[in-house]
Structures are given as structure tokens and as C-alpha cells.
Amino acid sequence: MASSRQHLCDICFIQHITEDAQVWCPECEENFCEKYLETTLSDLLTNISNFVEDRKANLKELKEQKMKCEGDLQSSREAINKYFDALEADLNNKMQQAFVKQESEIETVLGNIESHMTKVKEKENLNCIKSIASDFQSFMVMRMMSQRTHTEETEQQNWIKSEKCHWVKISVIPYDIKSSEDSPPSIGQIKVQANCNKVTLKIRKSREAQLIGPISTSRNIETIQLRLKLECKIPCEYKFAEPQIMDGGILPSGELIFCDRKNGRLIILNSKGDVDKNITLLFCPIRFAIIDENSIAVTSADRVNIVNFKTGKVLRTFAEGLKARSISLHKRNFIIENLGKGYVFTDLLGNTQKSMPIKFSKDFYHHPVIIKDKLYYAEQDGSEVVCLDFEGNQFLKIKDERLFSPYGMTLDSSNLLFVCGIKSNNVVVISADGSTFKEIVAPNEHLNGAISAYFNKIKQELLIVTQNGNVSVYDVI
């Protein structure tokens, strides 16, 4: 019979000691005697104590590291502050230099202009000389004064054309830190902007009126006549769809200009009606106001765009967010239709001067025309011309059965209103007080959909254009 045998302690056995085991450890897969069992439990506790001490030591060191990091962070902030202080000082220095330069230039120009004051004041003695001199003497003096006046006028016009009298604005353009991953080279830029000067010259016509008496330019609405000068259609070229003409005008050069909303372009025709230029825009033009021989203010869905119509380049925009539709230029101010809400008056830079709230239809546009202190617009929905004061109070309504759905409206130099009917296909002329109304172009197919009227006061021409591009130019006699 086999005898039972006690297991030996594995650790003692390795040391060539024979000792009976008391415990079998399943994790170690070893037998332990009572001595080494106690030793193993002691090692575990020692390990735990070591872990505790290690973690506590790490916590203590983290507190020291935190204090060091806070110190490093403060040092970094101080370094950044010093860096930005230096950038601010540099930008401030540039700003001061810009102001000193512009102020010095304006003072120089001002001194030059004031030197002309004495010369001009000599001309104030003209009436006194005329009262005591003979006719011949008066003639000679007036001839001499006319020559001097012409010279002075030419120089004043040169002031307008030169950059010396441009309206200067200086501003800071902040640096957009979020847009760069690198350290900013500066915290901004100094912007010096030279805009159109704000001086309006009174030139020769007013002085000639003082010398030779008033010249009447008024028209008799009863005898006014139109003589057809040009009739054509804006061609539908191969790369463009059928045009949707929204407005038309006559440039200082005599060329005709139109905006085509559907095809996003401006079209310029020569005096014969041939296409001179197509200018592609990056927006859909609605209506426009001619500013000068180079630029034009064009409305789009939510802003006004100042465009160089020779290059098509947008020079600047303003009235962002405004539902800009019709627009006109009156005494260096824009009057802009805010769709369904009325009109907004701005200066040439787009700064709002005032608003005129009017609740009119959102389905049609209302081109504003100014006569003295009154504003006129054509209301297609009611087939009437409405007159308001600048506070928006209705002053007059003009209505006649011969005019159905008026749309385009313009003004001649005698304050006569020329209106075209988009549905009556005709042109009428109306006195400012509404007392006289005359149809001057009878309904005809070529005027079907007449949407815009423009009067060229220099050449006494009337332009009418329809939505599909039918063009009519009349001499007004």
C-alpha cells in the first residue's frame, strides 16, 4: 500500500532544505511552508506601501510643476504683452505719420486756394465799375474780367480733377488673429482713403446769367414734340439668353447703357444701336444710376455696387442687407428704393442720411424722381404718379386713363415728367403740379413692356427701353 507523503516547500527545496509545505498557492503554483507564507504576505504589503509613497511623491512634484508652469505662463504673457506693445507703438507711429502727412498736404492746398481769394474779390467790383464807366469802358473791363474768370475757373476745375482736393479718410484695419497660424507681423494697418471731393463748382452758366441776364429754358407742354432718332433692338447674342432689361441710360459720352438681369451683364450700344461692349458682372443687376464718365451705381438683391463700367470691376459696395431696387442720383446723394419699405437717402460714400418709410407694393419697383422738395414715383398697381414731401406725406396723385401701369419715369430740365406705361405701351408728359397731361407717343408694339425712361439733359434726348430690349431714342423739341 502506498504511503501518503507530505508535500515539501518549493522555496526550501531549491535551497536544499527539507521542510513540509503548509499551503498550496494556485496563482504561483508553488507550495509554501509557514515561514515563507508569512514572507509572501509581507512583500505584498510592502509593494502596496511603495505604490502609495510613489503616488504621493508624484502629487507633491505635480504641485511644484504647477507653480513652475504658472510662472512660465506669466512670463509668456509678459513676453506677448511686450510684443504687442511694440506692435501697437509701431502702428501708432505709422498712424501719426499718416495724419501729419495728410494734414500737411491739406494745409498746403488750403494756403494755395486762399491765395486766389484776393484775385477773385477784385471781380466783385464789376457792378460798381459798370455803374460809373462808359459803355466802351464797361465792355473792356468785362472782357478783361471774363478772361481772368476763365483762367480762374480752369484752375478751380483742375483742383476738382486733381487728387489735391480728394476727401481723405484715415482708419485702422485691425489684424484678424484668427485668420493666421503664425505670429502677427502687426496688429493692424493704417488705411488712407481718398474719395471724391465734396466741392460742387458753380461754373460759367451762372456767371453768364449775371452778365447777360436770365435765359429761359422752360418748355410748353402743349407744344412739346418728339422726333424719333433711333429705333433698334438689343441683339440676343449666341452666348446669352433672351435679355431681361431692367434699366437704361445715356452715358456722358453719348453711348447707351442697359442692364440685363437674366444674363448678369451691362450692355453698351453706340449711337447707331450697335453693341459696343458686353460687361459681365458677378451679380444680377437690377437698376442703376450713372455717376460719371467711368462709374455707375448698380443695385443687386441685397446691396449697391459701384462699378467701373469700362472694366466691369466692382470698386466698392454699400447698403449691404438692404433690398435695393430702383436708385437715382440727386445733388450728390443716392435715393435708393428699399423694396416694399420706402426710400433710403445716402451720400456718395453710402452713409445713410435719412429714410423715408412708405408702404408700397413689393411686386413692382418705384423709381424716385426729385423736383425741389418733393419726391415723385410711379405706382404701377394703381396706374398713378404719386407725389410726397420728404417726410413721406402724400401731396398729390396724378391719374389718367391713357396711362396704364406706369413704370419708367424721368425728368427734363423744365421739371416735366416723362412716363412710360408698361401695359399701355405709350409715353406721356406731365407737369409737376399734375394740371397738364399729354400723350406724346401713342401706343405701339415697339413700346410693349416699356420699363425704363431716361432724359439726357445735355442733348435733350429721351430714351425708352422695354424688358425684351426694344430701344427708342427721341429728340425732344
UniProtKB/TrEMBL annotation:
Q: Which UniProt keywords apply?
A: Coiled coil
Q: Which residues form a coiled coil?
A: 52-79
Q: Show the Gene3D superfamilies listed in the entry.
A: TolB, C-terminal domain
Which InterPro entries does UniProt cross-reference here? 6-blade_b-propeller_TolB-like
Q: Record keywords: Coiled coil included?
A: yes
Protein name listed in UniProt: B box-type domain-containing protein
Q: Which organism is it from?
A: Mytilus coruscus (Sea mussel)
